[in-house]
């Protein structure tokens, strides 16, 4: 069976790291069909909208989507694309690699972020000249769904520490509901977990990341805590992510379009290639996923390095080294 | 003129570190009148409410309040107390001290956190069996007020880097309004600043804290980012804070009641004593404030240390060393 993969490079370094990931996938010879889609600042300039309907449909209908990055229009592109694949879970591993300078080398975390609601529900109003409101939406159904996904993910991937992040001492009813849903799911599945206030967790993750494994979070907490973890492992150039829906999924690096280095051919392709590895895993190619991850790990340890990691190699050099290591 | 200081130790180590701070203040002989108030878990157990009206009134009427910590009832105590002193600004310095093991020794940050609204407005509803909402409130007036305070604070304290944290790419109208207010105030006062998405900022603060100075934040972002900074400098035992209102103010350590070590006499009093120094500054005793800060700094550098900093000294040992160093 041929898998149809939507490929949306987007802006800036997206156009450099996505082709690198495709090269790696093609080397595995799995018979994927890649179909290109357009989105991002450059599309907005040309056509007045950052995410054309055809690109939305492409992602919605593909078996999986690889997305690079978008610039100023990032939110206009990625939020609808996440919706296009009906992705309720955003999975963000943050792992320190041997040989890469990390603030905390013992970091090996996976954030499982609720991906559909919270402050991302998009309900805002200017009530008066002075007052603006945003409605933070938390549902029991979405909270249960992310909890089920998170506990199962932890079990399937051998993590023994599961933490539920929240701020239920202030957001009593909304995060209270989130917490209750996690508690109910844990009870039904006989899962163990700890809960942590997200502010205290931010501190503890920095001081003792080795004490944590999978962190299940409401949407915005997951956004912040996963970027925090990027800081612990040496930056966004290393963090892949998966947006998982019931029938399809979208894979993207956590980094953005990096306009400061775009066009120079020196972007670190690791996060994008690791995102492709997450796609392989998701599609049932676990062996190949491990092969790709091992190759990237080997190159990070003693292969060529892009400038973000203190080297002077190009995107092409690193990609070639990964292909050699496969 | 005698200053009337409300003293609310609260729960756990609050009852150990607050007396330490009072000892230091008494040694300065400024003729303060200290009036005790009760709040916290133990009060809730005895009387059914964590914050009796008389304690609320005491804080509201005092010239300044010293608060220790509360346990399970923390939110029920501190949020109303902040309101009692009408505190619109929460000032949280996070500084690494020579001799104290810090993840990032170059950290010298001050978070200026909006203290009255955002998700802390307390407006939540269970709409259906499935749906719960929270209304995040952002007003132009409160945003302007915190921006004015933040820019003036940075100028008065010699910080050249000011950053406004936000998530206006997602919370477009609410954080959009916050950002616009900051921009307007900066324009009127000819202040310079950068803006940063709070997720990206979390990462950058960990990797390069030396690039930042004062960070002006909406309420929850300030809560998280200041705890993150605590992680960078070696934990909550070192972070003081001020809740500033137009006529009075409340000073508290960022740490909580630490039930795990409460009653052992080994709590680090530094954050509480440094909070008292912030009070001295606020009341116009700048020389004495500097004296206290210098004494604490000297003790942190080569005096006795409590267990949280790897030593085996008691709260009393550290307090005595600070008194000697005054
Ligand atoms: C671009 C933005 C909307 C997005 C988010 O907040 O989810 C980004 O920060 C991320 O984490 O992927
Ligand atoms: C106890 C809690 C309500 C409080 C807050 O969220 O403000 C605490 O985390 C703090 O930062 O002082």
TrEMBL record, chains A, B:
GO terms for biological process: isocitrate metabolic process; tricarboxylic acid cycle. SMART domains: Iso_dh (SM01329). Keywords: Oxidoreductase. InterPro entries: IsoPropMal-DH-like_dom. Pfam families: Iso_dh (PF00180). Residues 4-322 form the Isopropylmalate dehydrogenase-like domain. One of its GO terms (molecular function) is isocitrate dehydrogenase (NAD+) activity. Belongs to the isocitrate and isopropylmalate dehydrogenases family. This is 3-isopropylmalate dehydrogenase.
């Amino acid at each position: 069976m041929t898998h149809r993969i939507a490929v949306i490079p987007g802006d800036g370094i997206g156009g450099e790291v996505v082709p690198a990931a495709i090269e790696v996938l093609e080397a595995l010879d799995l018979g994927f069909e890649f179909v290109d889609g357009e989105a991002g600042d450059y599309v907005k300039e040309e056509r007045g909208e950052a995410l054309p309907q055809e690109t939305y449909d492409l992602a919605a209908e593909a078996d999986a989507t690889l997305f690079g990055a978008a610039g100023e229009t990032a939110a206009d592109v990625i939020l609808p694309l996440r919706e296009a694949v009906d992705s309720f879970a955003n999975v963000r591993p943050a792992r320190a690699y041997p040989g890469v300078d990390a603030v905390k080398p013992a970091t090996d975390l996976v954030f499982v972020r609720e991906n559909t609601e919270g402050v991302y529900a998009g309900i805002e109003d200017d009530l008066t000249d002075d007052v603006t409101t945003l409605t933070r939406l938390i549902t029991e159904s979405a909270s249960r769904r992310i909890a089920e996904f998170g506990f199962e993910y932890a079990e399937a991937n051998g993590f023994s520490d599961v933490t539920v992040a929240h701020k239920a001492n202030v957001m009593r009813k909304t995060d209270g509901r989130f917490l209750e849903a996690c508690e109910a799911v844990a009870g039904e599945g006989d899962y163990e977990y700890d809960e942590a206030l997200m502010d205290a967790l931010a501190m503890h993750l920095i001081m003792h990341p080795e004490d944590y494994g999978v962190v299940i979070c409401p949407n915005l907490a997951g956004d912040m805590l996963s970027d925090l973890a990027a800081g612990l492992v040496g930056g966004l150039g290393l963090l892949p992510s998966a947006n998982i829906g019931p029938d399809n999924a979208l894979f993207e690096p956590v980094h953005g379009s990096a306009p400061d280095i775009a066009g120079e051919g020196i972007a670190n392709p690791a996060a994008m290639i690791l995102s492709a590895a997450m796609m392989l895993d998701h599609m049932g190619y676990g062996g190949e996923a491990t092969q790709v991850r091992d190759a990237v790990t080997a190159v990070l340890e003693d292969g060529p390095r892009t400038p973000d990691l203190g080297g002077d190699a190009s995107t092409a050099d690193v990609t070639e080294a990964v292909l050699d290591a496969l």
